[in-house]
Amino acid sequence: MTDGVARGDDAFTALGPAVRSALSERGFTTPTDPQRKAIPTLADGRDALVVAPTGTGKTETGMLPVFDALAESEDRFGIGALYITPLRALNRDMRQRLDWWGETLGLEVDVRHGDTTDYQRQKQANDPPDVLVTTPETLQAMLTGSKLRTALEDIEHIVIDEVHELAAAKRGAQLTIGLERLRELSGRFQRIGLSATVGDPHEVGRFLTGGRTCAIVEVDIGSRLDIEVVRPQITDRDEELSSSLVTDAGTASHVRFIADLIDENESVLLFVNTRQTAEALGSRFKELGTDLGVHHGSLSKEARIDVEDRFKAGDLDALLCTSSMELGIDVGHVDHVVQYGSPRQVSRLVQRVGRAGHRRDLVSSGTVVTTDTDDTLEALAIARQAEAGDVEPAEIHDGSLDTVANQIAGLVMDAGEIRAMRAYEILTRAYPFRDLDEAQFKQVVEELAANNVIWLDEDRDTLEKRRGTWQYFYQNLSMIPDEATYDVEDVASGQQVGTLDEKFVVNFATPGEVFVQRGEMWRITNIDEEEEVVTVSPIEDPAGEVPSWVGQEIPVPRAVAAEVGELRRVAGRQLQDGADTEAVARDVATRYAAGPETVVDGLSQVEEHEGPIPDDTTILVEFHGREVIVNACYGHKINETLGRVLSALLGQRAGSSVAMDVDPYRITLEVPRRITAGDVIEVIEDTDPDHLPALIELSLKNADALKFKLAQVATKFGSLKRWRGRGSTDFGRDRLLAALEDTPMYDEALREVRHEDLAIEATADLLRDIQNGDVALETVGEHTPIGTGGSSSGRELLSPENADASVIKTVKERIQSDRVILACLHCKKWDRKQQVKRVRDQPSCPQCGSTRIAALNPWAEEVVSAVRTDDKDEEQEKMTERAYRSASLVQSHGKQAVVALAARGVGPHNAARIINRLREDEDEFYRDILRQEREYARTQSFWG
């Protein structure tokens, strides 16, 4: 070898003398594994996907052959290479890392994204850099600029970082067409994809190249992972900590255990699954005095950069983060990664733990800290699959029609006018649109023409630019749903606390509600929809408050849930045959990354369970009163699909709605009394799997998810101005659904909801397996430990399992101050709105003396009207029935019933359950009310 490169490192010999000299100067004498395997292939100019752990030099792997080719090129005047990243934050890191190479090799490297100044944009157009680091959306804008189009004609290389992130998103589908538009301009160019983890590299390779030949270069990730799953055991120290941290001893043990891990390592990334958990856990470490920063997407850019820089400089011992840190943002060396709670997916664990051990060839070490029994078994399955390299496949958005609409406008912007079939040919070269048929394409074109986005000349079969094309295209550069971001401002100081997504504000935020941000608790005092500002006030005593909102869960895939079922089956049979629990746990621990004490915790539900165990080959249906639990280890999407079918068909039988909630291992239904065990079994056994798509579509028509998605898709088609969910009524959304039902917008909204939330084909296969006996269907007439085990998962971090006295006092004061409508159902002539605390122990009608008094919510005047109406419709009949059930409770239990009925989301059925439960003191009564309120807050999106 020459130029100071160590002898025997053949990969670097594929590069020219200038780059090899720079390598020597930089101190890179030995190539890393991905460099050794990929550089010769890339130096030959071949398209390739490079899959390797974070921190193994993937950026240099992709860019060194590109720099080499550019340094050797003499007849190029425009941009030679694009480095495309999914995050602007990555752009900043790439600029810092690539500038040195550019300066050393005499090549100009520049960055362009949404925040680039007009002066810098103009400079890039007039004097293009050799390498431009940019985002997918900015590429869309660049393709429409006349000077930049000229600069892009010289493109020879495209490097796409974190390609797995884009493969599973509409942004990526849009990018694939953008690359085909670029190919029209520049001819063929080399395509290089970089990824830390991919479950199906050949499919992602086809995504990258448009289905053309793609070399796959993989460096084994699983063998570099050292993962341990731990459920911390509660100690005496945790009992003491729980009071100072305002939480239960279990959560205190988690905080203490993680704090010890942080002390044992120099630099730790602590991942959580939601921003709310990040804020809640951050506040606990703040109380403990741990030197830790918080990093997530709701914080300002300046706040995120500040904690990144402080962590990189060693000023922080740990960085508590969400998925904002999964991708390759450079925060320096990381010794250890902690994942709080199950990561839910194998790919997430690989990405996150892969951030540790950035020094050459070091093993990445991580600890998963679990919070309940489901969590523990799930984490065991995920850790094993991660170390085996069994990563979930990327779910590519095949044929998304709003992306087609967006890119038709882009093609028209590129050319001014284009023949329709030529546009169709370019679109279908992109891999996600290979199966787009001409009829769908024509429908989208006609919709765009009707919306004045483009001009369709049917005689000439051409698509032409019109006045609205420019405005539409630049308003829709991104395929990320266009939702507002509300500023959160402290009412006292006027300073910005952070931001909230529109969906959060639409579905949750009302004055008086409590949430956590920046590690502190806030009460909403006002919402200004015009200015998009949520005004809040800080809460001085968090012990007296219960946050009301729980974020949407990351979906657990079928393979993970099935392995949890397999664990239950194997261990369950041993336990039911009389084996000792600790012996079984030791046996499981030999195959999984956990100690016996953690496995014992994970098997606690199985140990207590009697009868058939719900596992990977058995579904167990439990009945208890009006609650049905279908125990099914099939993951979120299949359970969501099956749950929707059961809810729709059982509701149809009963003539009323059926509430539903799902997790990866259970479907929980609250059914009308007329629904029996036989009805549930009959629906599962008799539903034709081939009818599933139609049944699902029917059920989705009543779901807010489809209506909200339809509004977003219609905006991307130019049919609606910017969608604002909060200001719209359910009636408005229903009208939108009716108006757009026979359009490609409806088809796309339905496709996207199915893609993101459901698994129709897999659920149809499951029904077939049940019906032919491959999956057993068992029933039991009571709740089981496994069936009820899911109710503890998702418990708010800030709320002790048994609420303390201050919380109970707060709940009691709130309910006593609330108002109810008291209405006589005997004479039907008297009603009054009154505070609960002013209601008599046994309410009675002052006109007729009857104690048949209904207690109703203060906004339920229509129920009173329904009771007094003789000729009732179906809805009024339901209201009347509910009112009489309420009156029966008040007549039997007096003011106690009024209190229960005044709680949020507690109807007559649940009020009766609360009242009839034996308890020792009044606090227990209010604890039961609080539990029901939390359950309602968690499941209310499934009602109605």
TrEMBL record:
GO terms for molecular function: ATP binding; ATP hydrolysis activity; catalytic activity, acting on DNA; DNA binding; helicase activity. Residues 39-216 form the Helicase ATP-binding domain. It comes from the Archaea. Residues 257-412 form the Helicase C-terminal domain. Gene3D superfamilies: P-loop containing nucleotide triphosphate hydrolases. InterPro entries: ATP-dep_Helicase, DEAD/DEAH_box_helicase_dom, Helicase_ATP-bd, Helicase_C-like, Lhr-like, Lhr-like_DEAD/DEAH_assoc, Lhr_WH_dom, P-loop_NTPase. Keywords: ATP-binding, DNA damage, DNA repair, DNA-binding, Helicase, Hydrolase, Isomerase, Nucleotide-binding. Pfam families: DEAD (PF00270), DEAD_assoc (PF08494), Helicase_C (PF00271), WHD_Lhr (PF19306). GO terms for biological process: DNA repair. PANTHER family: ATP-DEPENDENT HELICASE LHR-RELATED, ATP-DEPENDENT HELICASE LHR-RELATED-RELATED. Belongs to the Lhr helicase family. Lhr-Core subfamily. This is ATP-dependent helicase.
